[in-house]
């Protein structure tokens, strides 16, 4: 059966992030952007609102971070110091989109660069920040070119630089391309990299809101998060909360999608509460002919696998969390019946092991250890106790056991794959090892592992 893509009519009321996008996918430059209500929210904020009023508006709207954590944006803004003597503050946009299977921020920056510029302008005004940085993944060359052009256009129009819109507010915006490390997605590692240091996470506290870039108060927000701000300023709280589908507790829309061997992989702006099944079947077109759905990750490589039984869950932070995973970036990956879970997870753990900054021992040593065991299971050379060792590693690398969230995220796909597909891991344990273990008698499997490694 031929799949016919679902037609989506984007409207300002239901698609605040994408309704201005062109069908030919070319960038929307300043003249076209302003003809479609561009910078209306910025003008409203700078000319008619107090900074604290903007912070409270974003908080009341229920905007949550779109980078994966889902923390209240308005609350995060409110943590910046109120002391007027702290006159040097920074706004930092986390555009280091290194999560495998995630490409939503790239789409916004390449096609809607002025939306991010406007979102940062409003946010900087609310935070009393005079300078902003877009920390961009180095491989996003087209995004860098488009963002720099948009910044120059905004400067020429009096929307960046000195005395913006005649309000006396100054704001400078700079694009900084990173050197290509996954760990820079962690905000303090990102700050270290921006300062020219090694990209290691920092000890917290102090948090960036009190001591961030060059020791000054800093707010770090994701690209998609900042791109939501202009519409909230333009249309208000009630409108933003009313977009969500069903009974979702999360407000607004989210860029969601499916990758993998589906008929129409992609990303769409959808209201929170849309089910994963609807995205998979109606937007992504279901699995390719001859393939059966097996499992999925809701929001990037660092989220727990779920099964077909979870497809009817609403795509929001609470629902996916209750199912034992995380919404993450909401760019899901579908796994089909021809893909083995052991080689799939081994591939993911190799990536996470390589991208560890090496700062703390559990992450530095634990992730490569998991890769060694998975390789053995993949070759059919596993030994009794391997699965239990992997489970022990998942506990030892869990939340609160490492310096940052890299390792806890890295072991999520591993622990969930064992939970739902344990038989595939057991198949990698060679039969002769069972006989050897019985013959040895008193020697425990973990001691065999110590000898092997």
Automatic annotation (TrEMBL):
What the entry lists under InterPro entries is as follows: NADH-UbQ_OxRdtase_51kDa_CS, NADH-UbQ_OxRdtase_suF, Nuo51_FMN-bd, Nuo51_FMN-bd_sf, Nuop51_4Fe4S-bd, Nuop51_4Fe4S-bd_sf
Q: What is its EC number?
A: 7.1.1.-
The record's section on Pfam families has: Complex1_51K (PF01512), NADH_4Fe-4S (PF10589)
Q: Which PROSITE patterns match?
A: COMPLEX1_51K_1 (PS00644), COMPLEX1_51K_2 (PS00645)
Q: Which UniProt keywords apply?
A: 4Fe-4S, Flavoprotein, FMN, Iron, Iron-sulfur, Metal-binding, NAD, Oxidoreductase, Quinone, Translocase
Domain of life assignment? Bacteria
Q: Does the UniProt entry include the keyword Plastid?
A: no
Q: Name one GO molecular function term.
A: oxidoreductase activity
Annotated NADH-ubiquinone oxidoreductase 51kDa subunit iron-sulphur binding domain ranges read 342-387
Catalytic activity from the UniProt record: a quinone + NADH + 5 H(+)(in) = a quinol + NAD(+) + 4 H(+)(out)
Specify whether Mitochondrion is a keyword of the entry.
no
Q: Which cofactor does it need?
A: FMN; [4Fe-4S] cluster
Task: Quote the function comment for this protein.
Answer: NDH-1 shuttles electrons from NADH, via FMN and iron-sulfur (Fe-S) centers, to quinones in the respiratory chain.
Q: Which NCBIfam families did the record assign?
A: nuoF_fam, PRK11278.1, PRK13596.1
* Protein name, per record: NADH-quinone oxidoreductase subunit F
Which species is this UniProt entry from? Rahnella perminowiae
Lineage, top ranks: Bacteria, Pseudomonadati, Pseudomonadota, Gammaproteobacteria, Enterobacterales
Q: Which gene encodes it?
A: nuoF
């Amino acid at each position: 059966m031929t799949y016919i893509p679902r037609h989506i009519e984007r409207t300002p009321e239901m698609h605040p992030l994408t309704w201005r996008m062109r069908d030919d996918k070319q960038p929307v430059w300043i003249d076209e952007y302003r003809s479609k209500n561009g910078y209306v929210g910025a003008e409203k904020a700078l000319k008619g609102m107090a900074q604290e009023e903007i912070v409270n508006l974003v908080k009341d709207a229920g905007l949550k971070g779109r980078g994966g954590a889902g923390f209240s944006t308005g609350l995060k803004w409110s943590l910046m110091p109120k002391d007027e003597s702290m006159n040097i503050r920074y706004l930092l946009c986390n555009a280091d989109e290194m999560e495998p299977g995630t490409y939503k921020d790239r789409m916004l920056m390449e096609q809607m660069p002025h939306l991010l510029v406007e979102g940062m302008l409003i946010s900087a005004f609310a935070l009393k920040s005079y300078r902003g940085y877009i920390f961009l993944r180095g491989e996003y060359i087209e995004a860098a070119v488009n963002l720099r052009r948009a910044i120059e256009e905004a400067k020429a129009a009096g929307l960046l630089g000195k005395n913006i819109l005649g309000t006396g507010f100054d704001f400078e915006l700079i694009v900084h391309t990173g050197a290509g490390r996954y760990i820079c997605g962690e905000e303090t590692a990102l700050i270290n990299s921006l300062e020219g240091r090694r990209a290691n996470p920092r000890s917290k506290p102090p948090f960036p809101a009190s001591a961030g870039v060059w020791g000054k108060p800093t707010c770090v927000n994701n690209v998609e998060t900042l791109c939501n701000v202009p519409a909230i300023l333009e249309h208000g709280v009630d409108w933003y909360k009313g977009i969500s589908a069903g009974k979702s507790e999360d407000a607004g829309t989210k860029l969601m999608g499916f990758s993998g061997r589906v008929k129409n992989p992609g990303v769409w702006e959808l209201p929170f509460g849309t089910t994963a099944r609807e995205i998979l079947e109606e937007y992504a077109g279901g699995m390719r002919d001859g393939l059966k759905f097996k499992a999925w990750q809701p929001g990037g490589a660092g989220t727990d696998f779920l099964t077909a039984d979870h497809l009817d869950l609403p795509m929001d932070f609470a629902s996916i969390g209750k199912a034992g995973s995380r919404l993450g970036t909401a760019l899901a990956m579908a796994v089909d019946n021809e893909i083995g879970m052991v080689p799939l997870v081994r591939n993911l753990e190799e990536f996470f092991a390589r991208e560890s900054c090496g700062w703390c021992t559990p992450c530095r040593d634990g992730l490569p250890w998991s890769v060694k065991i998975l390789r053995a299971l993949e070759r059919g050379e596993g030994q009794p106790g391997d699965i239990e060792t992997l489970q022990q590693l998942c506990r030892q690398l869990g939340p609160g056991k490492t310096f940052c969230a890299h390792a806890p995220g890295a072991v999520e796909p591993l622990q969930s794959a064992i939970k739902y597909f344990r038989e595939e891991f057991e198949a990698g344990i060679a039969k002769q090892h069972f006989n050897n273990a019985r013959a040895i008698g008193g020697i425990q499997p973990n001691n065999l592992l110590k000898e092997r490694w």
